[in-house]
From TrEMBL:
Belongs to the class-II aminoacyl-tRNA synthetase family. HAMAP family: Asn_tRNA_synth (MF_00534). CDD domains: AsxRS_core, EcAsnRS_like_N. GO terms for cellular component: cytoplasm. Keywords: Aminoacyl-tRNA synthetase, ATP-binding, Cytoplasm, Ligase, Nucleotide-binding, Protein biosynthesis. One of its GO terms (molecular function) is ATP binding. InterPro entries: Aa-tRNA-synt_II, aa-tRNA-synth_II, aa-tRNA-synth_II/BPL/LPL, Asn-tRNA-ligase, Asp/Asn-tRNA-synth_IIb, NA-bd_OB-fold, NA-bd_OB_tRNA. It comes from Niastella vici. It is an enzyme of class 6 (ligase). The lineage of its organism: Bacteria, Pseudomonadati, Bacteroidota, Chitinophagia, Chitinophagales. Its EC number is 6.1.1.22. It catalyses: tRNA(Asn) + L-asparagine + ATP = L-asparaginyl-tRNA(Asn) + AMP + diphosphate + H(+). Its main location: cytoplasm. Homodimer. This is Asparagine--tRNA ligase.
């Protein structure tokens, strides 16, 4: 079929060529002008029907979101703001849409909250059109970045017996015996909490498996779904999210930070180059929304400006100890503006991270040298005996987007730490083998994909940048 996507049509020269457009109706004016959208861009193509071409019954069926096939010729448009339009020779309705019932028709400007309730339809709005095209582009750019650098893309398992973070936020896997499942007294099925006799969970991170491969391929990355039983309703946590986790042999903490900063900038640059229109749409939308806020709550920069600023400036690099000092000496602390306690040893909360980024440095910040007691067992211990070679990257509007570290490559130090943290050393023999057989300095990090999409799109709730958010309240579709 000769269907041409709306985005390509809008960029074509109008030479009177025959074209076919298929899409959904976004508007119908004067029984003559049909605006059609097919999701390739937020812009619509105008299809012009001559008066008398459509009978009354057909006209009535051209409602918001009815799907339609228009055949015609591509000609220059007299209308403002559009270069081309389709002069229709035939119109075929593929699927009707009952405007009386259509949920997106019923509200004028549906709120993001309302759209979350109809997540199956929200792709049809301009906001979600833009967000998910940007998300798509970023996913593609991730592979391109690592491919250009020669990293091997590794698929780490979803079901695993290890708890990489030791944070106990796992979903357990249950098996349902196929024949004659055991039943409880009330007749309900008695699920077994195991995976063919072994206790397993859904992965919280692919890192440990990633380390196994990095000690053979030198540089690898995983990019896959990750699960955490976070029973918290925050705008930056999901129970199911996607994470990008590169792991590199022969990297120290500094190399790790440099790679992470370069990676984030690469993704932003990619979106700015390939999704300019969508980002400008989102910037506009955000600006309108901010107009409702009091002056001091508005951002100093628009979305595009902010992204350009991030591209053109180095991330600030500070130690955890410096970060705590800044917080303790801040006006916000003195005025008791922080909800959570500030002192050396805390796991910084979003409010602290955002203060450092948005109020103090006004740029992304990389924090290194966290207390070992708030970090996972595998991080390389510093000589001070108190801190580890960890690094978190904090971004405006969000807080932590990356968590990473140089890994402990010294077998003795590692097993000693594992014992202190009550991690079963024998069960982890396969992991420790990397330290036994040709151990190397190595490092890696995890970038939360949805947090990166929030950063680039300027959206503020993580549920609005994943197609089907899994949160304590959302599991249906
Ligand atoms: P947070 O402090 O925000 O809970 P974390 O320190 O528990 O994050 P890590 O274990 O360091 O998270 O995971 C690496 C990255 O994965 C984080 O920097 C973040 O970008 C992302 N991430 C972690 N938990 C979630 C979640 N529940 N939903 C979405 N992204 C997440
Ligand atoms: Mg967490
Ligand atoms: Mg954290
Ligand atoms: Mg972290």
């Amino acid at each position: 079929n000769k269907r041409v996507k709306v985005k390509d049509l809008l960029a074509s020269e109008p030479t009177g060529q025959e074209v076919i457009v298929m899409g959904w109706v976004r508007g119908f004016r004067n029984n003559q002008f049909i605006a059609i959208n097919d999701g390739s861009t937020n812009n619509n193509i105008q299809v012009v029907v001559e008066l008398g071409m459509l009978d009354e019954a057909t006209q009535k069926r051209i409602t918001q979101s009815a799907s339609i096939k228009a055949t015609g010729t591509l000609i220059a448009s007299m209308g403002k703001g559009q270069k081309v339009e389709v002069k229709a020779t035939s119109i075929e309705i593929l699927g009707d849409c009952d405007a009386e019932k259509y949920p997106l028709q019923l509200r004028n400007r549906p709120s993001l909250e309302y759209l979350r309730e109809i997540a199956h339809l929200r792709f049809r709005t301009n906001t979600f059109g833009a967000v998910f095209r940007v998300r798509h582009a970023l996913a593609f750019a991730i592979h391109q970045f690592f491919n250009e650098k020669g990293f091997v893309y590794l698929h780490t398992p979803i079901v695993t017996a290890s708890d990489a973070e030791g944070a106990g936020e796992m979903f357990r896997v249950t098996t349902l015996p196929f024949d004659n499942p055991p039943r409880n007294e009330d007749g309900s099925i008695n699920f077994k909490e195991d995976f063919f006799g072994r206790s397993t969970n859904l992965t919280v991170s692919g890192q440990l498996e990633g380390e196994l491969a990095a000690t053979a391929f030198s540089e690898i990355y995983t990019f896959g779904p990750t699960f955490r039983a976070e029973n918290s309703n925050t705008p930056r946590h999901l129970a199911e999210f996607w994470m990008i986790e590169p792991e590199m042999a022969f990297y120290d903490l500094e190399d790790n930070m440099n790679l992470a900063e370069e990676f984030i900038k690469y993704l932003i640059r990619y979106a700015m180059e390939h999704n300019r229109e969508d980002l400008e749409f989102l910037a506009q939308r955000l600006a309108e929304e901010e107009k409702q806020l009091p002056q001091d709550k508005r951002s100093e920069m628009g979305l595009i400006e902010k992204l350009e600023f991030v591209l053109n400036n180095n991330f600030e690099r500070i130690t955890y100890t410096e970060a705590i000092d800044i917080l303790l000496n801040s006006p916000a602390y003195k005025k008791k503006k922080f909800q959570y306690e500030v002192k050396w040893g805390i796991d910084m909360q979003s409010e602290h991270e955002r203060y450092l980024v948005e109020k103090h440095f006004k740029k992304p910040v990389i924090v290194t040298g966290y207390p070992k007691d708030i970090k996972a067992f595998y991080m390389r211990q510093n000589d001070d005996g108190k801190t580890v070679a960890a690094m978190d990257i904090l971004a405006p509007g969000i807080g932590e987007i990356v968590g990473g570290s140089q890994r402990e490559e010294r077998l003795e130090k590692l097993t000693e730490r594992m014992k202190e943290m009550h991690i079963p050393v024998e069960e982890m023999w396969w992991y420790l083998d990397t330290r036994r057989y040709g151990s190397v300095p190595h490092a890696g990090f995890g970038l939360g994909f949805e947090r990166m999409v929030l950063f680039v799109t300027g959206m503020t709730n993580i549920r609005d940048v994943i197609a089907f958010p899994r949160t304590p309240k959302n599991a249906e579709f």
